[in-house]
Write a structure and sequence with these properties.
- Helices cover about 35% and strands about 20% of the residues.
- The chain is α/β, with parallel strands linked by helices.
- It has 2 domains: about 270 residues, Aldehyde Dehydrogenase, Chain A, domain 1, CATH 3.40.605; about 190 residues, Aldehyde Dehydrogenase, Chain A, domain 2.
- The protein is globular.
- It starts with a strand and ends in a 12-residue tail after the last strand.
- The protein binds nicotinamide-adenine-dinucleotide.
């Protein structure tokens, strides 16, 4: 089958005349080319931002009430449901994700996000305060054109997570997906136009980060930037030097902390799920497993038992739990960590290298789910974000040690605590320096629960009503209603 052609979306349609470079899109499960991606030239990108600016200012968009915008988001959610199987197929080809994960988790979550933000559109409330002789109003207004830059690990979900609150707030969006996984974001741009979102309100730019991504964020008509991706790129500042608000959602090195009084079987199940779901390529996953010394040997055996039941392989098989690494560079990076880990003094309990699969999957980016034992605080695998199927087991003696180790990384995205001691729950929730903490559970997410990253994990906020406000410009007004109130020096 010849690779399909995929192009940037301008005014609801793929541009027939996009003039940038052409990139290959690979299926990571097979290593084969599935699409030729036409990128934006500098001119294309400028046309795209102009189109979004025009659409934002148009009467068609401006006359919509917030509730009308909500209805459009509901319609987009319905379209995602209706087109779910087509989108599953695209995402499966583009990312190699297991079909069950796409059908049961990612597509329903994308639709749920749109419904949550559809409902949020008419609940953006400012404040009115009585001031002597008048009123003080604080209001929220859309910025205009906002840029949304997304990574490759959850292509559709990450795009919807930002586009939906941006539209609920009344903005126009130019979204640039990762050059590795453009397919479902292109489909999202087309679907947005099909459900009646005015042309240009959702444009999709394609291209490399340092080219199309950079040109987009620094474009003078782009007023707000939402970036989801690596801490390294987030640290570049993007358009912060232009005084644009830049919402950064970046990396993590999260810890699951298991105390001796926990339900160990459930905790082991959670640790394996968290460490290996999406092949470890999830920003809020726990890649460090901190275990109380007292039960550490027993817990390692539990982890090994669960790992032996994990099915890694064909993404089309409903029984598959784990697919390939999504990109070749990420595959090579994670493999290097696996190979270097024993040199730092830890032990490979399971996995530790490439996974050879037969037939059509032989050319894919496959790695073995890997358990490392005896990992200590200062090892690279304990400090650096691997973003692959590597779970490092670290032992601790006291609660205070667990807190020190968990917080002893530069990131602060998520954490999970397993204990049956209620007082300990209270202490740990206070002590862990992360944006979200799960207690006796793991990776449970709802659109309404915000995740505000701490430390080098970012500066912004994701999910919840707060995400809508991140796409709103604040403005205050002081309205005087007292003609006798003094003005200035009273010069007469
Ligand atoms: P990345 O930083 O390499 O790329 C992310 C996006 O930024 C891509 O679209 C890329 O093209 C673009 N980009 C790259 N350089 C740019 C530049 N100079 N200007 C503008 N755009 C640029 O990240 P990735 O490898 O695609 O994704 C993996 C990373 O994303 C991991 O670190 C992971 O933790 C993080 N992530 C974070 C969250 C979160 O919510 N905190 C969610 C998902 C992924």
């Amino acid at each position: 089958m010849a690779p399909m052609r995929v192009a940037p979306v301008l005014d609801g349609k793929q541009m027939p005349d996009a003039g940038g470079r052409c990139l290959e899109v690979l299926n990571p499960a097979t290593g084969k080319v599935i699409a030729q991606q036409v990128c934006c030239s500098g001119d294309d990108l400028a046309r795209m931002v102009q189109s979004s600016q025009r659409a934002f200012r148009s009467a068609e968009w401006q006359k919509l009430t917030p509730a009308d915008r909500g209805v459009l988001l509901f319609r987009l959610a319905d379209a995602i449901d209706a087109e779910a199987e087509r989108l599953v197929e695209m995402e499966l080809l583009d990312s190699g994700k297991p079909i069950s994960q796409l059908r049961q988790v990612e597509l329903p979550f994308a639709a749920a996000l749109l419904r949550f933000y559809g409902g949020a559109a008419d609940k953006i409330e400012g404040a009115v305060k009585n001031t002597p002789g008048g009123l003080h109003i604080t209001m929220y207004q859309p910025y205009g054109v906002v840029a949304v830059i997304t990574p490759w690990n959850y292509p559709l979900v990450n795009a919807v997570m930002q586009v939906a609150p941006a539209l609920a707030a009344g903005n126009a969006v130019v979204v640039k997906p990762s050059e590795e996984t453009p397919l479902t974001t292109v489909a999202l741009g087309e679907l947005a136009a099909e459900v009646g979102i005015p042309a240009g309100i959702v444009n999709v730019a394609l291209g490399l980060g340092p080219e199309a991504g950079r040109d987009l964020v620094v474009h003078p008509q782009v007023k707000n930037v939402s970036f989801t991706g690596s801490t390294e790129v987030g640290q570049l500042g993007l358009a912060a030097d232009q005084m644009k608000p830049v919402n950064l959602e970046c990396g993590g090195k999260n810890a699951i902390v298991v105390f001796a009084d926990a339900d160990l079987d459930r905790a082991a199940e959670a640790a394996v799920f968290s460490g290996f779901t999406n092949c470890g390529q999830l920003c809020v996953s726990c890649s460090r497993c901190l275990v109380a010394e007292l039960i550490a040997d027993e817990f390692e055996q539990l982890l090994l038992g669960k790992l032996s039941k994990l099915k890694v392989g064909d993404p089309r098989d409903e029984a598959t739990h784990v697919g390939p690494m999504i990109t070749r560079p990420q595959y090579e990076k994670a493999l290097k960590y696996m190979q270097q880990a024993p040199k730092e003094g830890c032990t490979i309990l399971a996995g530790g290298g490439k996974l050879e699969l037969p037939g059509g999957l032989a050319g894919g980016f496959w790695l073995q789910p890997t358990l490392l034992s005896g990992v200590t605080e200062h090892m690279k695998v304990a400090q650096e974000e691997i973003f692959g199927p590597v779970l490092s087991i670290m032992r601790f003696a006291e609660e205070a040690d667990a807190v020190r180790i968990a917080n002893g990384v530069c990131y602060g995205l998520s954490g999970s605590v397993w204990t049956s001691n209620v007082e300990r729950v209270g202490r740990m929730v206070q002590a862990l320096d992360t944006g979200i903490i799960w207690v006796n559970t793991m990776l449970v997410g709802y659109p309404q629960i915000p995740v505000p990253p701490h430390k080098m994990s970012g500066t912004g906020i994701e999910l919840g009503m707060e995400a809508v406000l991140a796409f709103c410009q604040r403005k205050s007004a002081v309205i005087n209603s007292d003609q006798t109130a003094p003005v200035g020096w009273d010069l007469g």
